[in-house]
Amino acid sequence: MPFDPELAEMRFGAGLSPAIAPPAGVPAMLERLSGPDDIAARFPIEDFTAFLVRMEANRTARRARGKSKDDPAAAARHLKEQRLVKRDARIAQGQWLGMQVQRRVHTADGLRERLVAFWADHFTAQGKAGVMQRAASPYVETTIRPHVTGRFADLVVAATTAPLMLHYLDQEAASGPNSVAAQALLAEGRVKRTGLNENLARELLELHTLGVTGGYAQDDVRELAELLTGLTYQAQVGFKFQHKMAEPGAETVLGLSYGGGPGNAQLSDIVAALDALATHPDTGRHIARKLAVHFVTDDPDPALVDHLAATFAATRGDLMAVYAALLDHPAAWDPVLHNVKPPFDFLASAWRALALPTDAFLTMDEPGIQRNLRAPLARMGQPWERPVGPDGWPEDDAAWINPLGLSARMDWAMNGPGDLGVPLPDPRDFVRAALGSRALPEVIFAASAAENRREGVGLVLVSPAFQRR
Amino acid sequence: MTQSIPSPADRRATLTRRAFLIRSGLLGCSAAASPLLTPITFAATPGDNRLVVIILRGAMDGLDVVQPYGDPALAGLRRSLRSGPDAGAHDLDGFYALHPGLVALLPLWQAGELAFGHAVSTPYRDKRSHFDGQDLLEAGTSDLAPASARDGWLNRLLQQQGITGAETAYAIGRDALPVLAGRAPVANWAPDAGLLISPQARRLAEAVMHDDPLFRMALSEALQLSRMDVPALTDDDADTDSVAAMAPARSMGQPQAGGTVAGHVAIADFAAERLRGAARIAAFSLSGWDTHMAQAAVLPRVVSQLAETVLALRDGLGPVWGQTAVLAVTEFGRTARENGTAGTDHGTGGAMMMAGGAVRGGRVVADWPGLGADALYDGRDLRPTRDVRDVVAWAMRGLFGLDRAVLETAVFPGLDMGADPQIIL
Fold first, then answer.
1. Is residue A281's pLDDT more than 60?
2. Which end of chain B is less crowded, N or C, counting CB atoms within 10 A of the terminal residue's CB?
3. Predicted local distance difference test score (pLDDT) of residue A2
4. How far is CA B193 from CA A112, A318, A380, A393, in A?
């Protein structure tokens, strides 16, 4: 089958652009992916080291406020400081959303953006209160993005030791029942906050590595929860392994024993367990299926899944090899468009087809970001950086294309681009720019028969050929 | 399996009965005194009763929401999570106490319009995954069929009723609701939705989507629902700095003077509005129950949302509240023991809530297994003694008059409903 550049850009990239040519072939796609991450430098998003400064500022103000109980004026001043830190982070979160749209619009390496989104979703983490609620983009920038072309095990270790993940899945405060820290608290009679929390251990097995059909049991969850004690973070330094919180002795996960050597518990024992989980054959099958579902169709060809799983197993999770296997397989190039774009991808690919100017959103105020990006995404069913649970956003097409979701997409398609004040193209030209050879006669007709440009452009965007990939 | 119904006071039973008669408009009629006025007789007009199903996503801690403080083992299992009237909970019957955050529902309990099931669960065991647990809860089967072959028990109820109108059942909000998925038509809508589109654009959109069934059907339904007088929103509310903001429906509030209607209340209002009209069944989600950490700080917020939801339904339903049952169910319970971070981890047995004027309330339906070390399931969880589907099935029988055989084969295939807990008046 000859290589279809348009399909490559739609299915594995950011969608067609009137300004940027689609990739010339699979080798070119992989070569760009292996090369420098140009678009991230061009549209920068704060990394987690910088975000820690916000966390620390929030902590400092909160502490100062706590110490100012007898001084109402000082307490009020510190409260205001805390609110400013939170407000600034909230505004920054909106700007990072604008940056992410811009990356999709202007990249020639769309596969990288798609992979970052895929892995960010696989390792979903979000803040539960205060300034941490704004930490998801910096987390992705530091923890996910640099590792999407490496080994899967590197991603697992990075995500499992990321402060945001430790916060989201409640690992930060968990301690081994027999740890030094727990014993000291018990000696003081402070028993309430000592002991395990299974949340991260369970999701690590169920979502991040083996998958829910994988061969693990409650005992593995429990033992892994013991092994993970000590993983924590501090606002000043970020991730920190606190061996005093770690459960002493060995833990057995999937029949393999970790730790239990002389001296303090070691981070290296946890890393060894994560490596074993990340390279486990069940993990390979889980990841293979997720990739095939995400990039090709909700019901992928078993031969494709087998091919990816075999590559994962043979390379112990070398992700570039797995991506190459995906792009080499004929089932990945089924010319029929299947998957519905999730709302962010729909919106960003629409802006790409509309050749959004490079400065759009970058200096927009908060109400503008709310109106033009956050509100439409929420109405389409994808409130930004707030999936309901650690399993991330749904893949099922029907989860997005129901009366509610489709209404929101239509409303945005007909009105959103015009509201931004960007000059709209002639719909008769736009239908070709957005859909290429997949512009069906009824869409070409609709684009020409619409009453105005807004609706003409909107009808192209709501066509199934644009909403699927 | 035995049925323990903690001694409802006679006085309350009398009041409940009278309330029922008033609601039914039968007071003074000779039939009112007839012993034939059984739940089945009542269900002889299946067209008038209403069923609301709330899926509590994240695994509600039944032991904290309906606290079995009379069980001597409870206190020893929980260090920071204190239970019972001494800890501010509201005594229900001398054995169970209601979480303080549900205080607003006490009048319903006293009026016999609120009941709970306890030590209930789906057949899901041991792996304790939220996602599989919710899928099984909503599929209503013993095992999880492949996603493509799956439908939900509320949809199968509609199929049995021969429902053909799309406005009989509503899936409300932007969360997927597999419990209503299936062959029978269901409306999927939200309080802030509305599709304003010119007639020409509408015709062209229909043409553009015509050959793609997923899009064609969604559009057709959206246009139909939009024709109804649905209050539309222009912008979503700004984000708020709170844990509650993580609720999926948080952006659905309708702006009002002096603030906004919270998402869950807007959804309940919308459900009530539809149920006052042609709708008979509504389902929606309430998330935020996954309390692994600092449960004493996190849970009050979400139980309050549940209380506000139920009260909004009652107020919104007005005269038809008397013909309504609200069932709130969750994927599984949480560990009997508190964990190391003042929360609870994924467990097995849990609690469910039943509210409404059609409910025989003022009681906790449970075959209590005890919380002693030997009684716990897997040494860690409340042992389930009743399938949550039994209670739901009996409620459906009471409300809609379905044959037991139909419920046990078509709606909940393979279920043995067991003894009748007489959920519905």
1. yes
2. N
3. 82
4. 34, 45, 10, 21
CB pairs under 8 A between A and B: 199
> Measured in Å, how far apart are chain A's first and last C-alpha atoms?
18
Chain A contact for B219 (CB, 8 A cutoff)? yes
Cα A231 to its chain centre, rounded Å, is 22
- What is the per-residue pLDDT for B421? 95
- DSSP conformation letters of A203-238: HIIIIISS-TTSS--HHHHHHHHHHTTTEEEETTTE
Q: How many residues does chain B have?
A: 425
Q: Does B260 touch chain A (CB under 8 A)?
A: no
Measured from the Cβ of residue B100, the count of other Cβ atoms closer than 10 Å reads 15
> What is the ipTM for the molecules in this complex?
0.94
pTM as predicted:
0.83
Proportion of chain A above pLDDT 70, given as a percent: 99
Pairing mode, strands B281-287 and A256-259: unpaired
Q: Which residues of chain B have pLDDT under 70?
A: 1-46, 164, 228-261
Q: Residue B201: which of A173, A403, A459 has the nearest Cβ?
A: A459
Q: Which residues of B touch A455 (CB under 8 A)?
A: 198, 200-201, 204
Residues near B39 by beta carbon (within 8 Å), at least 6 away in sequence:
B397, B398, B422, B424, B425
pLDDT for the residue A43: 98
Measured distance CA(A321)–CA(A317) in Å, rounded:
8
Determine the angle formed by the axes of helices A110-122 and A281-295, rounding to 10 degrees: 130
Instruction: Give the DSSP H/E element, type plus range, for residue B172.
Output: strand B169-172
Torsion angle of the four alpha carbons B73, B79, B80, B85, in this order, in degrees rounded to the nearest 10: 30
- At residue B344, what are phi and psi to the nearest 5 degrees? -140, 150
The Cα angle at residue A109 between residues A104 and A113, in degrees rounded to 5: 50
Interchain CB distance below 8 Å, A192 and B214: no
Q: What is the dihedral of CA A278, A283, A289, A290, to 10 degrees?
A: -50
Nearest Cα to Cα of residue B200 among A447, A250, A307? A447
Among the listed residues B269, B300, B267, the one whose alpha carbon sits nearest the alpha carbon of residue B285: B267
> Of A112-116, A133-137, A339-343, A418-422, which range is least confident?
A418-422
Residue A208 CA to residue B335 CA, distance in Å, equals 23
Q: Find where tokens 């006669």 sit.
A: A441
Q: How far is B397 from chain A (nearest CA, A)?
A: 30
Tokens of B254: 């309708």
Taking the C-alpha atoms of residue B321 and residue B315, their distance in angstroms, rounded to an integer, is 8
Give the pLDDT confidence of A356-381 residue by residue, as tens digits: 999 999 989 999 999 999 999 999 99
- Nearest Cα to Cα of residue A411 among B315, B240, B400, B198: B198
Q: Is B326 helix (H, G, I), strand (E, B) or coil?
A: strand
Report pLDDT for A186.
Answer: 85
| Tokens, residue B253 | 């509030």
Are B340 and A177 a contacting pair, CB within 8 Å? yes
Q: Any bridge partners for residue A231, and if so which?
A: A241
The helix (run of H) or strand (run of E) holding residue B350 is: strand B350-355
Give the pLDDT confidence of A51-73 residue by residue, as tens digits: 999 999 999 999 999 999 899 99
Q: Please judge whether A443 and B198 are an interchain contact, meaning their C-beta atoms are less than 8 angstroms apart.
A: no
| A153: enclosing H helix or E strand | helix A152-160
Chain B nearest-CA distance from A106, in A, is 28
